[in-house]
From TrEMBL:
Belongs to the binding-protein-dependent transport system permease family. CysTW subfamily. Signal peptide: none annotated. Pfam families: BPD_transp_1 (PF00528). Residues 96-304 form the ABC transmembrane type-1 domain. Keywords: Cell membrane, Membrane, Transmembrane, Transmembrane helix, Transport. The chain crosses the membrane at residues 25-51, 100-119, 131-152, 184-206, 227-251, 283-304. It is a multi-pass membrane protein. SUPFAM superfamilies: MetI-like. This is Putrescine transport system permease protein. It is found in: Cell membrane. InterPro entries: MetI-like, MetI-like_sf. PANTHER family: INNER MEMBRANE ABC TRANSPORTER PERMEASE PROTEIN YDCU-RELATED-RELATED, PUTRESCINE TRANSPORT SYSTEM PERMEASE PROTEIN POTH. It comes from Neorhizobium huautlense.
Amino acid sequence: MAIDTLSPKPEPVIADPGRANPARWLVVAIPYLWLLLFFAAPFFIIAKISLSDTAIAMPPYTPVFEGFGKFGEFFSQLDFENYEFLASDSLYIKSYLNSLRIAAISTVLLLLIGYPMALAMARAKTSIRPILVMLVILPFWTSFLIRVYAWIGILKPEGLLTLLFQSIGLMGPDEQVQILRTDYAVFIGIVYSYLPFMVLPLYAALEKLDNTLLEAASDLGCPPWKAFWRITFPLSLPGVIAGSLICFIPITGEFVIPDLLGGADTLMIGKTLWTEFFNNRDWPLASAIAVILLAVLVIPIAYFQNQQQKAG
């Protein structure tokens, strides 16, 4: 029986991956749905409250959305008085600036302390690296609030630090350490609490470093300190940037540490926000503070990421 070799071969059918596996769209949609429900929707609610006026009612602001039938009337009552007040009052401007100052200094301190730790972990033996990582995350096994309260017992005038200095002769029996309720105590509490958030991204970046690059630099006569600045540090910049952002953003809005360890002069936007919400019950003004804080943090980060994508 003859076989027709000239007959065209059927083209392979390529299945549409979207139709073949509809669940993949669900996997993609879940993160966006999460952001919509727990970020975008609360943000729009806060933004709306920030354009409202304070009222002695429940909720303590007006206007309240009562349906789409009064949509035009509802929007006509919104204004920017709270934002104008924030721009004219030096207290809130100082709160923002002081929060950014404390966050920036704390981030630099965290980088100076965390980078050597992460470098030592990355250069340790492979067998003990999991143990070192576990030691870094070990403080997370206890409550954050309890750990901050422990620093009160250490830093208070009659606390453990005073007893230690007196026992080794650095202080007299009548002298006491005066650190609690100062900015120094705030820096200590922040650095202690956020150090794992700086170490882990740095360790992840340094662990991937190709050690043959350092060996080649050494063979070519490059001193260790120069090899660090020319090879190790540039290759670890993604970890530096990630750790700095992970620490800087929450530190700016930190409330618990300044409230427990700081004094009356420790002015941060987190404490100001809490005061307006719960003490003064001025929800519109507090919402305006939160919106501005979010803009101050998100806009520069989004711009930086856009520039990084263009450079890439």
